[in-house]
Design a protein that fits this description.
The protein is α/β, with parallel strands linked by helices and 863 residues long. It contains 29 helices and 27 strands. It folds into four domains: 238 residues, P-loop containing nucleotide triphosphate hydrolases (Rossmann fold); 146 residues, P-loop containing nucleotide triphosphate hydrolases (Rossmann fold, 3-Layer(aba) Sandwich), CATH 3.40.50.300; 154 residues, Phosphoglycerate mutase-like (Rossmann fold, 3-Layer(aba) Sandwich), CATH 3.40.50.1240; 220 residues, Phosphoglycerate mutase-like (Rossmann fold, 3-Layer(aba) Sandwich). A seven-stranded parallel sheet has the order 3-4-2-5-6-1-7. A seven-stranded mixed sheet has the order 8-14-13-9-12-11-10, with helices on both faces. The termini are far apart.
Length: 863
Amino acid sequence: MCFSLPCPEDPFNERHGKKRKTEDAADTNDDHKKKSKGSKKQERATGPNAIPVRKKETGEDRLEYDRPSKFLVVCLNAIRDGAGASEEDGGGIHDTASWGMELWKSCAASPPSDVLDTSYQYATREQTAWLVSTACDIVARKEKLGVVVSCPFLLYLVPSQEKAVQVRSICKPLKSLGIHSVSLHPGASIEHQISGLKSCEPEFLISTPERLLELVSLKAIDISNVSMLVIDGLKDFMDLNIIKELRSIRGTISGDAQSAATVARNLLHGRITKLTTNDSVTSRSAFVAQHVHFCTKEEKTSKVKEILEHVLENHASKTAKVLLVAANDNEAQKLSSSLKLEILTVNDGSQGSTFTVCSSMGLINVLVKGCESLATSGVEEFEIVLVADLPPSFDDYVEILTRTARHTVAGEVHVIVSKTDAAHAKPLADVLANSGQAGSSDFSVLTPKGESQAETSRLMLLADSFDACFTSPLARSRRTAEIIWDTRDKDLIPDYDLREIDLYSFQGLLKHEGKEKYGALFQQWQKNPSDCSIDGHYPVRELWDRAQGCWERILTHEGKSVLVVAHNAVNQALVATSLGLGTEYFRTLLQSNCGASVLDFTPQPGGRPPSVCLNRLNQTPSSPISAESSAGRKSSKRIILVCQGATQSSSEGSLGGVGYAPLNMLGVIQAQKTAELLLDLKVNSIICSPQVAAVDTATAICEVQEAAGCLGADCVPRYVEMKNLLGLEIDDAFLTKQKSLEQIVQSGWMGGMEHQKLKTLWAQSEDAWQALVNELPEDDGAESDRVVVAIGHPAIHLGLLCRCLNLTMDYMPSFHLDDGSISVIDFPDGPKGGGIVRCTNYTAHLGRWSVPITKSTENNDEF
C-alpha cells in the first residue's frame, strides 16, 4: 500500500494525495519546521494549560480517534525505508505491530497510561520506531484539534553517546515529515549545542541525563512542558550511578508526563500498562516478587493469617487488594470462613468470598477464589496474590504469576507449600532461579548443626542488651534469629531486603556445574563478581542497593542497640556499605555462619551523618584460623595481626611508654591465650615490634609453637623464625599523645589523634605492610604454604588493615582493635592478588568478648 506524505494543514493525509506532490509536502514541512521561535512563543502565550478550540466531532471523527491514523503508518514506513537504505534491516517494524498497537492504545488513551516494557535491557530498533511514531501521531492529533504542542514534546533519555546516536538515526527519516529531533551528549561541545538549540525548537529531544541537566541549568532549554518521557536502559543508568540525575529530570517535568521505559521501576507511579515482546516467564513476570512459605496442611490457615498481617504492615499507607487462591471454590469458602473467625473482618460479599481485614494499621480487601474460577477474577488488577493451594498443573501457577500486577510496577505472589506439593518443588525452584528470586525462597532450612551454631551465638550474646532485631524473612535466617533473640519481649522485624543474594541462572549450582555450563562467565563470577552480569542483572550491585535501603530503616532506631540476623552475602554488603565501601569489596570482608560483626554509629553535631566504626568483623563461635578457605577458595598464605597484650601503662589509660613497659598480669594471660589459639596452626615466622610488650607476646607464641610436639599438636618439631621490624614500632611523636582509658577502649578513638601524628603513623604503616607481604612466597608450589604472625600495638595494626584493603588514612578511625586481639588476612591468589579479611578484633579466645558488644549505660572503670 502506498501513501503520499502529509502536510501541516493535512497531518492525517485526508486528501489522500490528490493534486499534491511529495516534493510540495516536503517543502511545506520545511517551512513549517523553520518558522521562527517568536511565532511559536506567541502561539503559546495562552499558557501550558490552554484549552483547545475543537470543532464539533462527527461520528466518523470520533471513530478515527479510536484507532491509529494513517500518519502513524507513514512514520513507520519512513523509518523502515530509512533503515533499508542503511546497513540495518528495518523490515521487522511491522512484525512488532501487536506490541506497537498496545503501546499506542496506552499513550493515546484518555487519560494516557504510563508504559513499562520488560522485554529486554534496551528498546529494540523496532520498539523505538513504534515509540517515536506514536509520539508523531499524538503530536499530529493535537495540532489537528488546535492544541499548541510545546517543544520538546518527547524527551528520550539514553545512558550513552552511542545510544543517543542510534536513536537519532531512527528518528532522522521523520525530518521530512516535519518532526525535528536533536541529540545531546558529551561527545559534542556544550557551546555548540547551546548555539544549535537557539536556532530551533525540536519536537524530539534525545539526550544523556548529565548533559541535559547541564543545559537546563544554563537555561539553554526548557523541559518543564515535556509531554512524553522515555527512559531506555535503566540498568545502565544504575551501573553508571546516575539515578539521582534521572529523578532530578523527572522532577523538572511539570504535570504528568507519560513514561514508556524499558526498565523504570523507581520512576513510575500509579496505574501503568506492562508490555513485552519476550514470551519468557522471566519477562512476563518482571517486578513480581515471589515468596515461598512452608508449613503443614494443618497450619495453612495460620500461615495465611500471618502473611495477610505482614501485607497489612507493609502496605499501611493504602488499602491493599489481595487475591487469595484456594484449590477449588469449596476450599475457598472454608478458608474464607476460617479466616473470619481468626481475624477482625467485615463481610463485603453476598456469598462470603470477599472480606476486608481491619486493623489499626489499615485495611486489606481480600477476594477468595478457587483455581477454576480465576478466569473471571481479574488477576491482572491485583498487586498481591496469595496462593494457598498450588494448582494441580504447574502451568496454572505460571499463568497466575505472569498475570499478576499488570497495571502496577511491582507485585507480590506468595506461595504456601506443604509436603503434598512435592511434585511442584523442582519446577517452582526453576521458576524462582530463572526469575532471579531463588534468594527469596525458603527451600533450605536450618540444619541441626546450624541450630547448634545459633545456640552458641545466643550464649555469646546472652549478656548483651538489644532494643530491636531485624531479620531476613527466610526460614533459615528467621529461625536463627528466634534462637538468638530467645525470650526477649519485642517482636522480630522481618525485612525483605535482608534476603540472600539473587544469583539468577547461577542459583544452586556447584562450582564444577557452573564451570561446565557457563564456562568463562562463571569464571568471571568467581574472579570479578562485582562486574559480572548474569541474565542481564548485576547481583552484587543489586545486593549493595538493598543493603543501603536496609540501613535507612535500621538507623531509624537512633541511640539503640540493634541486632541484625541475615545471610552471609547481605551481611558483607551491610558492613561494606556502612563504611562507604563499594561492590569491589564483595568477598573481601568475610562473614561466616553465625559470625558476629559489630558496627558502632556515633552521632555527629550539626545534623551530619554518624561516624561509623567496625568494632569487630566475623567473630565466630569456632576458631577463625581453623578454616582453610576464604571466599570459597583454598588459602595457604596468611598474615595474622596480633595486638600485643596489655601493659601497666595501657591499663592506666596512657599511651605514653606503652611500648617500653612489660606485659602486666592481664597481658601475660592474653599472650598465653593467643599462643594456645595459634597452636593448631603451624606458624612459619613471627615479625614483631622491638618494643618490650610486643617481644613478650611474640616469645609466648614462639615457645608454645616449638612445644607443639610435646603438647600433642604436631608429630614433628616446629621451628619458628622470629624477627624484629622497626616499622611496627610506635614512634616517639605518637607516644607523647595521652589518652584516657575511656577514649582508648572507645570504638573509633583514632579519630581524635592529631592529624600530623596520624599522618606519620600512616606513612610508617606502608613500609611495614610491604615488609609483611614480602614474607609470603609468590609461587604456589608444595613448599609455598606460609603463615606470618605480626605483633605490635593496635594503632599500627589499624594502619596495616587499611593498607591491606587499599584504603586511605581517613579510614583508620573506621576500625577498632583491642589488646590481645587477632585479625586474620588470607591470600588465596598469592600476595599479589590482595588480601581477604577473615576477621578483625577477634577476642573470643580471651573469654567470649573482651569488651561488651553493646555500650554500657553505666560508668564502669573496670576493663
